Give the backbone structure.
Amino acid sequence: MTRLRILTAMAAAFAGMVMPTVAIAPASAAPGKWETFHDPGATEIVEDYCGVTGLTAKNDYVVDGRFKASTGRKGVSYYVEIAHSTDHWTNVATGAYVTVEFSYRFADQSVTDNGDGTLTETVRVTGNQVFYDQEGQRIGHVAGVIYHFQLVFDNAGTPTDPSDDVFLENIPLRTGGKTIDGCAVISAAIG
């Protein structure tokens, strides 16, 4: 799996969060080797943020961490990432902003070759995510299993080469614990 592939799919899973799109090489033979990364982010402007008509938000982020991609027994890639991100969401009209601190562990629980040209990954993200308003007051928090979902990819005829996979679908799974609607927390604070 590549960082680009997984983070493209993660963007669909993380409500209110923009995830970096830094590419890495395909996974090599198991066990994988830990590699570090730093993504200083890029500014993104989002109109009608989280469906709120007229709310234009600017996002700036930075992510630092390490990741490992390994090939499993059946030749498919597994991915683990441990990182910390800081997001700043700003209402461009008013300057009101929210800071989101997120320390997390992202890991594939299973990767299944469906036999029809697609792969299904079951992913669990655990960690600590805290939302702060511009006064530094905590306005949202969740810890433990933050996100749990399945990702479906077209393997482009090469199930052991994740570099050419195409994201098809994100299927949210029940986390069994406390969740938070990042869009609602952020839009309420900056709207």
The helical segments are 3-13, 182-190. Residues 3-190 form one domain. The longest strand covers residues 97-113. The chain is about 10% helix and 50% strand.
